Amino acid sequence: MDMVDQLAQAASNGDAAAAGRLLKKGVVVDALNSDRCTALELAVRRGHSDVVCLLIGAGADLEQQAGEYRELTLLCLAALQGHTAVVGALLDAGAHPEARSRIGHVPLVLAATAGGEGDPQTVDLLLDRGADINVVMKDRTPLDWAAGFGQVQMVRQLLDRGATPTVKSLTIARDQAERRPGNRQKYERIIDALHAAGVTTGTDHSIRHPCAQQDGREAENQA
Fold first, then answer.
1. pLDDT at 180 over 70
2. Residue 42 is assigned to a structural domain of this protein
3. Do 104 and 152 reside in the same domain of the chain?
4. CB within 8 A of 91, min separation 6: which ones?
5. I want to staple 111 with a disulfide (CB 3.0 to 4.6 A). Which of 26, 79, 81, 198 is the partner?
């Protein structure tokens, strides 16, 4: 195994000491390993915030693209994985909280839908650091996405943090309640929360996860 692959392995394993030794030996911090990944991408993906800080301190590029098709920013990747500490490290290093990936993903929406129920800590962190709570991604706000996925607590959190309740969010929740009768109760709780927030009325708003897998051709077409 050459030293670039050793650095990538150390980053993936969260071994900051080994990564530091390899950097001191002169390994280029953003060199691609045999899988065409940088050490920083692997550290972000695995949630190793100490290694992320080490690599950034050694000059790793915050603007590099990540993911199988280079479709995500590092901040989007961290938000999608629910790695709050890594999100904080990237923001501290200068990553913009609203920077879009090349196919339009934004960190707040990915955090709000991470893991099926959303990641409340990462959502709060992004909002505290200046992310727009009503940012639009693929024609929907974070509240719209959370309503569509039946994320009751995330809907309440976003409303508490000042998200604008809209007829669109209500319509999405109503449509999903009809489409998914087994989950009707949680959609009804979302509808109640939106009514309580002042939405009084409520088209097909089919929901597909905002980071659903795209093949290489789709990703290239949206570049």
1. yes
2. yes
3. no
4. 75, 97, 125, 126, 129
5. 79
